[in-house]
Design goal:
6 copies of one chain form a homohexamer. By secondary structure, chain A is an alpha+beta fold. Chain A has helices at residues 25-35, 40-43, 45-49, 60-69, and strands at residues 15-17, 21-22, 79-88, 98-110, 117-127, 133-144. Chains in contact: A-B, A-C, A-D, A-E, A-F, B-C, B-D, B-E, B-F, C-D, C-E, C-F, D-E, D-F, E-F. The A-B interface holds A 21, 27, 30-31, 34-40, 60-62, 64-66, 68-70, 72, 75, 81-89 and B 21, 27, 30-31, 34-40, 60-62, 64-66, 68-70, 72, 75, 81-89.
């Protein structure tokens, strides 16, 4: 489950896709309980009927948590999360939707401060069962360069 | 628990701070189970001893989930999340740390596409019990303008 | 989220209502696991079909936990729970019901033992989406009087 | 696990005691997530240090949930909960306390409305590892009388 | 809840059956989160539609956990689990199935190493609402003999 | 995350080891709530002090669930669980232990009923941080043979 990939080995425009996961009403309840956010948009089916979506919608923090969690397969011991940019939620996630994550290597550049490292940008897209994008962001990694 | 605040009413540089929450080993376990990320950095105390931090560190997605969740007090029915920018994790969160969130209104501008709305940026800082910032990001909101 | 209300400031017959929350099958499962009560009335759909209700019904302790939890918005630092009286469950809660809580200030009286405090009674009613009362009780608070 | 006990068979002053259960930090976190009550008295160790108790205290609704849950062993198919009276929390429950429940049959009387039933009162005491009472209430049951 | 049964008192071919429990989508989610097994056979409704079962199936470890858990009523302080043999899953468990467990005392024999103990085999069958066996195994117990 | 391995490709005596996971008090609580087994051996620290182990011990079903769960990395689409044999718990698991799983291919044989399949036995050993075996069993798989 460890897979070392150095900066030089990331291939621009390469793509990987994860398995899917159906987002259940139980996930909504668990995420409310974990985050402490019990807003009726997420948990009150009666209220939600009166909104433009007509039903409960997932917390953005849950789509992020599960969407990123789906990518946690192999560990790259020479890569570290620097941060996330431009996190957006173009479509809502509903109870019963099945999401998976597509990662595209969208950028590589030297790290301005660390000569032995580079920055790799993963374009993250979380997609539902219709292929619609429900979350997009850029995941910026710091990755070691090969020695010497 | 509903508190309507229009675009015009957001005051630049105003600050609010939430209550605190102690991040427990249980939260680590629950977040792993919710996200599906069981990486040993978060869940294996033996492995973690060998890392620079010397102990298990929180998932970034958990710090985000709980840090944002702490702000979910009153609902502003005329505000909507547009997205999050420049999400960074300057310091790790350890088991037993107590975090709270500070929100500063850091920017206001017209929405380029919607005349009846404006964009409000909340600078989000999640702070631990030592006052160190463990998560920073910009939360961009779309907020209705007062009618007429 | 802190809101100081002294004994003198509680207004008899004033009413507040909380947001709603849909009680899900997941809540039934979580409550069984938390309480240790796995009685088939709550968890066995086949058995429940043979009961007068025809379906699984919520644990009374869950309706109490969530009904009271819904009221945990602002903290009054000068009020303390003394206890609960006449806790009743006039109607069952089913999977999919949406409940919210109505609080009415129903009594105020001096505290017999503490000159600097008074007793405030909140009549608690947990209501379902049809407006039926599924839990009623009196929540008795000890509240500080204004100094002097 | 079914044990039929008719009204006539409840023996006044008889006592039963349950097994014990250690209340963990995980239970605090799970109860907050289930109830939606994230007040710092229960979840913020830093804040709790400044209170008279010096540490986090359990939600009253959790002590009730687990204290009553401990009694859910055998099912009496001819008994039904009527309600709970005089629910009090004489002492706080701290993380690491071990509680169990003692039930004493404290009253029996005819049901005023139903000739075929009687009312049985169980005095409920939840006790910690020092033998201190942390929750007391009267659990009122409606119990069928033997036919004929 | 304690019920002492010595080796001599186990009656060959005697049978006991537990209450039932409906296996919910929430149980699937909780078990994935507890075990760390997020395989799409259990959690991805879209993928599952393409399998021979046509829907998500329970983790074998969950059927084992809940099937055995259902038998945890009375404690026999003189019996200890030695192990489980021939654990099989003849049929899948689907969301919404209601299972219960049937225990048959299928074998008794002296313990080869401990003169004061015997081995008791419980044939464990977990059955769904149609009476189909979804899990079978032999639970081997070490049980004290009566003194003298 | 899919990795097809045919019967012919399993190499006798080959070994793989998983990452580790620290078993927390939270896991004990979650497993009790999931299984419905609240026996004091697992959840009552006071009682456990009086046992030979001197502390709470993990449910066998939890060690099985997590020990097997740790192996759920890549999916082999041509392999299916047939069952588990000789499941034993040579040592207890305590709160704070860190376990990982070692899988050894210990047997390969033709399937007696299915010409296109073979049986592969994985010897499963769950080991704690001292290298002690806390669970052992044989996991029997049915695996497709290469076509032709």
């Amino acid at each position: 489950m460890n897979q070392t990939i150095y900066f030089e080995d990331y291939e621009l425009n390469s793509v990987r896709e994860t398995h899917g996961r159906t987002i259940t009403e139980a996930d909504f309840v668990i995420h409310a309980g974990h985050s402490g956010d019990f807003f009726p948009h997420h948990l009150d089916a009666e209220f939600a009927r009166s909104t433009p979506f007509g039903q409960r919608i997932a917390h953005g923090t849950m789509t992020f948590t599960i969407g990123i969690g789906l990518t946690a397969g192999a560990i790259n011991p020479v890569a570290f999360t620097y941060g996330y940019d431009r996190l957006r939620f173009p479509k809502p996630v509903f109870i019963g939707d099945t999401i998976h994550t597509r990662i595209t290597i969208s950028n590589k550049e030297p790290d301005p401060k660390r000569a032995n490292m580079g920055r790799v940008t993963e374009k993250v897209e979380v997609l539902n069962q219709k292929g619609e994008c429900v979350l997009a962001c850029d995941h910026v990694l710091l990755v070691q360069r090969r020695a010497g």
